[in-house]
Amino acid sequence: MTAYPLLSIAIWVPIAGGLLVLATGSDRNAPLARMLSLAAAVIGFLVTLPLYTGFETARSTMQFVEIYEWIPRFNIKYFLGIDGISLWFVLLNSFITVIVVIAGWQVIRSRVAQYMACFLIMSGLMNGVFAAMDAVLFYVFFEASLIPLYLVIGIWGGPNRIYAALKFFLYTLVGSVLLLVALLYLFMESGGSFSLLDWREARLALQPQIWVFLAFLVAFAVKVPMWPVHTWLPDAHVEAPTGGSVVLAAITLKLGAYGFIRFALPIVPDAAKELAWLMIGASLIAVIYIGFVALVQTDMKKLIAYSSISHMGFVTLGFFLFNPLGVEGALAQMISHGFVAAAMFLCVGVMYDRMHTRAIADYGGVVNTMPKFAAFFMLFAMANAGLPATSGFVGEFMVVLGAIRQNFWIGFAAATTMILGASYTLWMYKRVAFGAVANDHVAALIDIDGREFAFLLALAVAVLGLGLYPFPFTEVMHASVNDLLRHVAAGKL
Questions:
Q1: In whole angstroms, what is the distance from residue 303 CA to residue 424 CA?
Q2: Would residue 270 be called left, alpha or beta, if left means φ above 0 and alpha means ψ between -120 and 50 degrees?
Q3: CB atoms within 10 A of CB 218
Q4: Alpha-carbon distance 483 to 493, whole Å?
Q5: Phi-psi map region of 356: left, alpha, beta (phi>0 left; psi -120 to 50 alpha)
Q6: Terminus of the chain with fewer CB atoms < 10 Å: N or C?
Q7: What's the burial of 304, exposed, middle or buried (CB within 10 Å: 0-12/13-18/19+)?
Q8: In 10 A of CB 125, how many CB atoms?
């Protein structure tokens, strides 16, 4: 137990802020709603900083633990804690929430309070996902966090928003049902406990482990999303407003990957090793095949959406290499993707707000009319392509090194497909930014204002910070990753 309930504060401050913003009501109070949203988002980020400053990097056990009775009859507890694996996701989530509020400041003109409240409440619920150490508490946060995003897509999205929102909901619902079945089975097998720490020590035979792993696979693969259950993501991204795409790419996709490393690897380690070939194969297909799919896209949002699927393939690949380089590289890739994907979608949003089109063919020569914007866009495009000294390079390079240690040809396949990432990203940038001014609409573009400069600068600093000096990021996770890998190597059989 900690002297101050820092994790509870990180969860409930943004939720309380969202409810307060919601209470401002109609759009007559939109200026007040915006100010309250920004204040709540900034405070929500600031209250997470003591988690980093007070974190003991040498410890692999859970820190800032809070345990309270919740439903004693079923031994369900309000059990929170973070380790070096989950710490950065709480910080990333709270940081991205501030960015989203600033990005939507002028763009959203209808139901402003409701829009901002959705993101604040979602931020608190996702912090709960990353901090929950009781399976029921995790499941509640895990499912509840999808509701605000469903509303954001369905209310503020594009022309086909209802279709995209329903597809998003139905895909995730199927996975959630299987996750619930697996959780109830583990509850019975562990003697009536929902604690993830108790489940980690529970003894299961290989066959039950495999069935539980497959349930986890379906539940979390949909959220990542992995091939072949990825088709909901491009539709969701295309129809979502810019803020929805930012949170979807930067945070929501991480819930699935986080589920693998918090549930699948420590709870059913023997099944994870037994089926590693399946995970590695699916991950390489995502990296290679989806990379080619991204290459032929004509819509910028769709291209970045498929790029996200490809980049998340490096994450699941790294997890199932079972070596420190692979796992730490995958975690670094998750953090980097949070920065880079958010920045890429915001750049598309900046252009869409001015021209109301995402088609690559409608642009050309943007650098001539928006030079400051084009500079930021180039940095983020380079990071998306994995340029050294940017955050996009760090995680992918570590995963490739980890893959080569495991099997040269796996590493070779992963490394060569990085060329695809450079191809589709830089080709898109060339057609959008370079060359002569393509048409009168591009000629009339106005460069970014102070608000847009601020959120793009914040993400640029994050991308370069992780790229140039990744040590503070990897140092935090090192002890927890080593402990996890020792546990997986020991197994349960």
A1: 8
A2: alpha
A3: 17
A4: 18
A5: left
A6: N
A7: buried
A8: 24
Beta bridge partners, 80, equal: 66, 132
Both tokens of 81, joined, read 């804690």
Tens-of-pLDDT digits for all 493 residues of the chain?
456 788 999 999 999 999 998 888 777 777 888 899 899 999 999 999 999 888 888 888 888 888 888 888 888 889 999 988 999 999 999 999 999 998 888 787 788 888 889 999 999 999 999 999 998 999 999 888 888 888 888 888 778 888 888 888 888 888 788 888 888 888 888 777 888 888 888 778 888 889 989 988 888 888 887 887 777 777 787 788 888 888 888 888 888 889 889 888 888 888 888 888 888 988 888 888 888 888 888 888 889 888 888 888 888 899 998 888 889 999 998 999 889 999 999 999 888 888 888 888 888 888 888 899 999 999 999 998 888 888 888 888 888 888 888 888 888 888 877 788 888 888 889 988 887 877 888 888 888 888 888 889 999 999 999 999 988 888 888 888 888 888 888 766 5
> pTM of the full predicted structure?
0.89
